[in-house]
Design a protein that fits this description.
Blueprint lengths: L8 H20 L15 E4 L2 E4 L4 E7 L2 E6 L5 H9 L8 E3 L2 E5 L5 H39 L4 H34 L2
Antiparallel strand pairs: 1-2, 3-4, 4-6, 5-6
Helix pairs in contact: 1-3, 1-4, 3-4
Length: 188
């Protein structure tokens, strides 16, 4: 009767990996005073009737440490791309040169650095919440199996500790990513 329950830890692991990947993407979009093409990833442009990522309307390059350039393929979209960058909240003032948009990356001041570390902290907290929600899903599956009689009490404790260990390891990964990003932001 009991012991025919097997928690899909691979599924939980895959979903927690998704939360970590999402955190990496969000942290990469924070500018740290150095130019990076990934800082433009979250910006969408109204192009051809739909919202489109900037890297799908032009070529994004980083020719020097404090400059990002976007070579927009369609002249009609240059203004829209420039407007999307201005309204993105990155704090960058685009400069036009024909179909090329240049984004000089200004030096970050101390206050802006502290603000960015808080934003990074918010991103990390969202990732932690997502991981905890996945833990809750796993625990709910175990409790349901216990109430169905398909898992013994000893097995229930075993699976709950497995889910908790998995959760703890992913929370540590989030904390490590946050610590690295905050150090990168505060580096002058």
């Amino acid at each position: 009767m009991a012991d025919d329950f097997e928690l899909d830890t691979d599924d939980l692991t895959r979903r927690m990996d998704g939360a970590i990947a999402n955190l990496r993407t969000e942290l990469a979009s924070l500018r740290t005073g150095r130019a990076s093409a990934s800082m433009l990833e979250p910006i969408q442009v109204e192009a051809y009737g739909s919202m489109t990522p900037i890297n799908q309307v032009g070529t994004v390059n980083v020719p020097e440490p404090r400059m990002v350039t976007i070579n927009v393929w369609d002249k009609g979209l240059v203004g829209k791309v420039e407007k999307a960058i201005r309204e993105s909240g990155l704090g960058i003032n685009p400069q036009l040169n024909g179909t090329i948009i240049m984004l000089p990356i200004p030096e970050l001041n101390e206050e802006r650095r502290r603000d960015l570390t808080k934003v990074a902290g918010d991103y990390a907290e969202r990732a932690r919440v997502a991981i905890r929600n996945l833990r809750r899903d796993g625990m709910d599956q175990i409790k349901k199996a216990k109430s169905d009689g398909s898992v013994s009490e000893d097995d229930q404790k075993f699976w709950e500790s497995e889910v908790q260990e998995l959760t703890d390891s992913y929370i540590k990964k989030v904390d490590a990513q946050l610590e690295t990003k905050q150090a990168e932001i505060m580096q002058v």
